[in-house]
Amino acid sequence: xxxxxxxxxxxxxxxxxxxxxxxxxxxxxxxxxxxxxxxxxxxxxxxxxxxxxxxxxxxxxxxxxxxxxxxxxxxxxxxxxxxxxxxxxxxxxxxxxxxxxxxxxxxxxxxxxxxxxxxxxxxxxxxxxxxxxxxxxxxxxxxxxxxxxxxxxxxxxxxxxxxxxxxxxxxxxxxxxxxxxxxxxxxxxxxxxxxxxxxxxxxxxxxxxxxxxxxxxxxxxxxxxxxxxxxxxxxxxxxxxxxxxxxxxxxxxxxxxxxxxxxxxxxxxxxxxxxxxxxxxxxxxxxxxxxxxxxxxxxxxxxxxxxxxxxxxxxxxxxxxxxxxxxxxxxxxxxxxxxxxxxxxxxxxxxxxxxxxxxxxxxxxxxxxxxxxxxxxxxxxxxxxxxxxxxxxxxxxxxxxxxxxxxxxxxxxxxxxxxxxxxxxxxxxxxxxxxxxxxxxxxxxxxxxxxxxxxxxxxxxxxxxxxxxxxxxxxxxxxxxxxxxxxxxxxxxxxxxxxxxxxxxxxxxxxxxxxxxxxxxxxxxxxxxxxxxxxxxxxxxx
Length: 542
Ligand code: SF4
Fold this sequence. Notes:
By secondary structure, the chain is of the alpha+beta class. The protein has helices spanning 14-17, 27-35, 59-71, 76-82, 87-92, 104-115, 119-135, 158-176, 178-185, 204-225, 235-247, 323-336, 353-361, 432-436, 459-473, 475-481, 486-497, 508-533, and strands spanning 141-150, 248-251, 261-264, 282-286, 289-301, 311-318, 343-345, 365-367, 393-396, 403-407, 416-420, 425-430, 447-448, 453-457. The protein has 18 helices and 14 strands.
């Protein structure tokens, strides 16, 4: 049953019983006076029954404990243990000495309730909004970066994936249909359940030799049960069939042998299953390291006039999604949460012709180096580099908004230009005879045919090329974009101090919650630090 936390203070609160235990400027007093009252319990009302069940544990205290948990690498049992023992936690949550008892399962169940909807995001947004207001932080400039959150799953080699898939299915089969298990067991090359099989990366050579044998076992199991009316609906069997389809190919046998040849695909798709224990998890490569887990995005304010910067957006998605695909969604969330910036800074993963144009449409200037080009200024040679749309004299028609190519880098005027709806590009034609004798021919992006030389371009190419030129040639602009690098420190803070590098959970929704509470904790820390160094802009909350 939903009930609110009593506002009445008690004479048995920790700071009254031990008045000088902590100095006045300790963080717990700021938390109690300024942050604790900001937690709006009514937001969580829908998670509980209004009349049935016993009253819930104080929501304010549970949210506070989740924030404290986000400040350090604490486990659920660790929070349960520390709550009655830490005087700063007792003061921060206005808890009476001797009454600070919470079972770790109560806290975890509350956390699980938050997984089901958007309440945690709303809490993060409300707190951040208030912090920004109280610290006078400007949201006009913001910067974004992404990082990997490592999953709890072991990274399996291909051999390990196939072996584990077979083992997991056989365990289900043995439990549900022991007779059928005994029957199929004799047809397989290995005792997958009872024998300890190496599934890691250690013995790569023997794994490669064994992989085709396991693939055959997979095929035998698939053929044996794909028409069985019950087993074909087993989740583990469906996973086995998917893994087989993603990793292997069946080659028709010409020599009339009983079994067809099973060929291992050279490269499975990036979206393929990488562990039978969690089919949602994907492998991703980062700096030549393969990882299982998710990708996290973090955006924070970065105006140089701000005394304190705050995180304004966090999110977790599948690790195989490219940064540029997530870019519009980051801006959508910023606009929805009323944190819309005027300028957003990102690295080349986020910035390309399309995202620049989409951002402009949303009223945000996306700044940073454009993807698809080298950003090494030392290797940038204006005399030798390949020419692109940015080197052509192009204007945008104020009426039709179409690109008009006025001349090429050699000042040659085009013969004509037309829109190719099929390719979504403008085809600009030049005299091929002049082009063939042009000094720039080797570096020019035109395609020279017999009758005409064609240059194709669209708005995205042009926006990307213009950005590339601006970034490489304008030192002041590069200096402005370097403001983005500050987000690396925030990523480091979240991953090292707040323990977000490793997910505590199996599901992505819970990993997202972990990141949200780590981001709230990070903002709370910054807000408290701001109060120690500067004044807040509003009088204290009561
Ligand atoms: S090759 Fe043709 S289009 Fe390219 S710069 Fe030379 S004249 Fe212009």
